[in-house]
Amino acid sequence: MYSIEIEAKTALTPLLIHQIVELSQQIPEFDRPLTPQALLERLAGKNCLLLLAYVEGELAGFKLGYEQDATLFYSWLGGVATDFRRLGLAQSLLEYQEIWARRQGYRHIQVKTMNRFPAMLNMLINNQYLITELMADPQNQINHKLRLHKSI
């Protein structure tokens, strides 16, 4: 059995930003490079939560979200490095985020994904997230974007 730890951070430091950017390069679903600037621009002035998953002390995955309004938390980015998949990390990060958000007073979590990420979509549906919007790509159904929502 592996030693798995999840660490929560509510403020991004330059070191954390570097770690997220570096880890994102090990996640094949991130088809566009994640940059420190993109992180800082998206999160500027927002209450956020960064969850870091470690396996045997090695950073293996993350989940990053932020406040949309007083009752809505948006789960923005996340992933698990290929070498650490099938250990339940994504599910553990999702559960941790939901518990944290509920304790902070949020009543809803929103997330977006795409048809081309069936593992993510299945995990969300299995955790009672409901599809609330479809943003169709007229050229390729695999690129349809889906917005999902869960009351917590």
Can you describe what's shown?
The protein is of the alpha+beta class. It has one domain: Aminopeptidase (3-Layer(aba) Sandwich). It is 28% helix and 36% strand. The chain has a 7-stranded mixed β-sheet, sandwiched between helices. Helix 3 (89-103) links the parallel strand 4 and strand 5. The longest helix is centred in the middle third of the chain and has 15 residues, at 89-103. It is globular, with a radius of gyration of 15 Å.
Would you kindly provide a brief summary of this structure?
With 152 residues, this protein is of the alpha+beta class.
Name some characteristics of this structure.
alpha+beta; 7 strands; 152 residues; 4 helices; Aminopeptidase; single chain; seven-stranded mixed β-sheet
Distance between the termini: 31 Å
**Would you identify the CATH H-level superfamily?**
Gcn5-related N-acetyltransferase (GNAT)
Task: Report the C-alpha radius of gyration, rounded.
Answer: 15 Å
**Total discrete domains:** 1
Strand order of the largest sheet: 1-2-3-4-5-7-6
Furnish the topology, listing elements before pairings.
Elements: E1 4-9, H1 14-24, H2 36-43, E2 48-55, E3 58-69, E4 72-80, H3 89-103, E5 108-114, H4 118-126, E6 130-135, E7 145-151
Parallel strand pairs: 4-5
Antiparallel strand pairs: 1-2, 2-3, 3-4, 5-7, 6-7
